[in-house]
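Our collaborator T.R. sent over the components below with a one-line note: 'Predict the complex.' Nothing else. No constraints on interfaces, no templates requested, no preferences about which chain binds where. So this is a plain run: every listed entity goes in together, and whatever single assembly comes back becomes the starting point for the next discussion.
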Amino acid sequence: MKKDKAMKYVLRPLKDTPQGFYLLLGGLSVLLALGLGAVWHMEHNGHIVTGMNNQIVWGLPHVFAVFLVVAASGALNVASMASVFGKTEFKPLAPLSGVLAIALLVGGLMVLMLDLGRPDRLIVAMTHFNFKSIFALNIFLYSGFVGFVVAYLWTMMEHRMNRFTPLAGLFAFLWRMALTTGTGSIFGFLVARQAYDSALLAPLFIAISLSYGLAVFIWVLMLASQGSARPLGDGLMARLARLQVIFIAAGFYFVLVYHLTNMYFTKHHDFERFILLDGGIYTAMFWLGQIVLGTLLPLVLLLAPGIGAMRRRIAASAGLVILGGFAQMYVTIIGGQAFGLVLFPGYQVSSSFFDGVTASYHPSLPELLLGLGGVAVVGLIVMLALKVMGFLPERLDDAALDMAPVQATPAAA
Amino acid sequence: MKHDHNTSSPETVAKSSSRRGFMGVAAAGMAGILLAPGVRLIEIAQAAPTAGSASAGASSKVRWGMLIDSDKCASGCTDCVTACNTENGLSGGTLPTDSQWIRKIEIKEIRTGKTQSLPMMCQHCAEPPCVDVCPTGASFKRADGIVLVDKHICIGCRYCVMACPYKARSFVHEPVHNQKTDVPRGMGTVEGCTMCVHKVDKGEMPACVTACSDAGHGAILFGDLNNPESEIAKRVASYPSRQIREDLHLNTGVRYSGI
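Returned assembly:
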């Protein structure tokens, strides 16, 4: 890629990639093959081979898919910082941010699509639309997102188009807000279920997307830096860490408001009791996974100085945010279904169709493999993009990025 | 729908048109043949609401509905469930993955201890959430208020199962065998109570209604809610009845009395 004076940085494909690169590439390919094998098994025998049933109709594949789709829009953060919010020092990282966003979306959608009862009818989904359905709208939001980000990448990487980068970046940013609003609304529009039926889910999903997306970006950036021997600057890492703190806090705020409003409405008390107190695995996942590991511990790691080296703390907190994110998706999607529909308030209810009882769900291996297959696709797309096309600047140190020197922020301590 | 080109013999076509034209006509003919099963199903879906006028299509003048009297519904009796399973070719299994189009619910008021029994199935809402959320339009409502799934365009996303307040939809988890010709089902698609549309269109009663009547309970009254002269409309107008989850304002076609 030619030198671009206006952007003051040079994007270079990875050269002389270490053996680890090919090992990871091979591992991800095997994971993808296993995922596709699981799909074949599921489609051949039906969803009976999964843990899903008529009470928990969306299972582990949806946990993976929604996490990836939500993280996709958040992965665009760094690019938006540069193009929309004028933090030009992030500009050299914008291409990686864009390609990661596309990869995450493709991985998530692949899982979602291959879990359909009839994935062979994809063409039906593309030709029959019910525009009142947020799912149908999402088909446009998702494909539009890919289109806008590709256009945005093009304006960044093609010198003659550079002047359009701010405009393309703005459209991509606005579109990612719409996209995550749409993803949150998949649940928000389910009026009959206690766990959903809340407009708060749209902003909540936007807030957690910022956090998940940045966490994934940090991991990818650190791996890419290591694999290409392009050392990262402390200033850059401190900025990313500070952003992560803000995003974790924003996500936590919406989770707090969501539960507080539910606790205010008497009709939701049973549901809150289920998630917060006596929901078994869902309660454990909420407190231990989502709150302690996914929220509090990363905040402590990022804010408390003196707990070991900064890089390790940032890497660990990003990993914890991702782990907590999966827990949050599990509680939201599966916990939300496990708490049964309330048809007769004030009555004890029983039937042959599991009315009045907490639905049981045991995730199966094919579901897990399908989900991991989606993660593998993300990894493969990013690795191949870095290797073949070059989405990474040739230098990542602070001087090259015009990054301000490390300030005495708590995160940078 | 007509497929005139089906009647042309290959010889005639070959003489009168180029080879390319022949291929086009043949392909269109094949498409017509392949489409035929689908056309048949659409015809069934659009069949007349009353007997004797099979080509009229479902009429919006009619609103098919049921009034279920839980005082007459006997606890422990599952005749309606059995009849539904037999009529629609369901296995009758009660595993978490089995389809149940109708189920008996036993309810006990916590405050008073009063117990009651009632059947629960698709409530055939006038404003069905399942139809709102379906991305392809496979979930649809006929003009006469019966809510159905078009098995040809259902992609198996299960969003309707998530959206239904009544847990009335089931997803087919396994290959289906011994299907009834009037009731198409398919692995990987969603299904639910059709109000026995294939019987209603022939002027007959839904299977559960007949079974309940045969058992001597007569707890389910079926009829046209729009016709003020019908028994169901008179009863709904004269006696208290309610919709389950009436807070959602879905205007259900199935009403309950006695609860």
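Summary for T.R.: Residues 1-7, 408-413 of chain A have pLDDT under 50 and may be disordered.
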